[in-house]
Amino acid sequence: MPAKILDGKAIADNILKKLKKKLKYCRENSERFPKLVVIQVGEDPASTIYVNKKHKACKEIGIDSEIKKFPETISYPDFLKEIGNLNKDNSVNGILVQLPLPEHLNHKQVFETIAVEKDVDGFHPFNHGKNLLGKKGIQSATPKGIMTLLESTGVNFEGKNAVVVGRSNIVGKPITLMLINEGCTVTVCNSKTKNLKSFTKEADILVVAAGKCNLITEDMVKKGAIVIDVGMNRNGNGQLCGDVDFENVKKVASWITPVPKGVGPMTIASLMENTIEACKQQGNCTCSV
Question: In this protein, which residues make up the domain named Tetrahydrofolate dehydrogenase/cyclohydrolase NAD(P)-binding (predicted)?
Answer without folding.
Answer: 140-282
